[in-house]
Amino acid sequence: MTALQDASQLQLDRLRRAWRGSALPGFMRWWGGELASLVPPRLRYAFAGGQRWYIVERSGDAWVLRRAGETLALASAGDIAAIEHRTGQFARALDEADPADRRVALVLPAANVLRRRLVLPVAARDNLRQVAGFDIDRQTPFRADEVHYGVRDLGETVGEGRFAAELAATPRITLDPLLDELASLGITPDRVDVAQGAGLAGVDLLPPKRVPRRTDRQRRLNTVLIVSIVVLAVAAMGTWLHNRAAALDAMRTEVESMQTDAKRTGAFRQRLMESAGASGFLARRKTESSAVLPVLQELTARLPDDTWLERFTLNATGQIGFQGQSPQAARLIDALKGAKTIAEPSFQGTIQADPTSGKERFYMQAKATTPKPAVVKPAVPAAAASAAKGAAP
Fold first, then answer.
1. Does domain 50-214 have CATH number 3.40.1350?
2. What gap in Å lies between CA 239 and CA 250, rounded to an integer?
3. pLDDT tens digits for 259-272?
């Protein structure tokens, strides 16, 4: 498990160095400063957050607590005071900051820290602390197990493929008692550094085993918010897609219904056209066909009373055929001459005598004629007629 944690820490250190080495931190600081300048000071101070560093250092026979970057002490506790008094005094001084944002640095005197400038190959940046630990025996008069050390990248390029770093080391017998005494006062330093004016030099000598494990509630909250935003965004996109799919299904259903109605309407139209065509055909046939009653009426009126018909036919083409008996069948041609509905009468075959009735049996053909309706010309108004006469040359 320790090897896994070390590997994870190594990857995090690589990411931090890559971040610090890029131009993004400077841009983000500039951009944040420009945005912060637009916020009223009262709101800016009310919502200000982030890490707040405090410095605790040994001054003579007392411990002094102050804010990083300031020289005024917030609390001071001498060794002669009771431990409960000193613990309460420091706790009250540190209560001004949120525990999630509060960071404490133990500052050692410069005389107790040995600092060396190192020139290392660029490949050593990925595991800078381990590389510096191998060089402790050569850079300091101590062995690696006798000191607590820290190393930082100075961000300086020294020649091609090399960079500058700073190694800081202090004896364990000097640092461990100080850490134990601070632990008895209820203070767990987040780093051990060297004073640089009122601030920190930036070299952390705190042993990895004594680094406090903190729960960053703000980071957790931010993680929860980011996850919630992602979930809400996915839910919103899913809802949008669902609504689009539902709308598409509704449109498809409506289109299918309209297509069904269109097909039904087309079938009705086809049936209507067929019915209209059939009706028109019947009407035309009725109009074009000769009427039977006028033909029968005229045939009855013109034939003699002693002549009767045994069969009568009138087909769609207007062809008339009738068969019967008459005392003098030859006179029937003259009787039908001048008929309005019967034209071109003629005998079909020969006239034969019927021995039973003593009359002549005949079969005649003719053509039915239907008189055309008279064309009525539309009446022309007098005014229009006079205008036409006036316009004529």
1. no
2. 16
3. 999 999 999 988 88
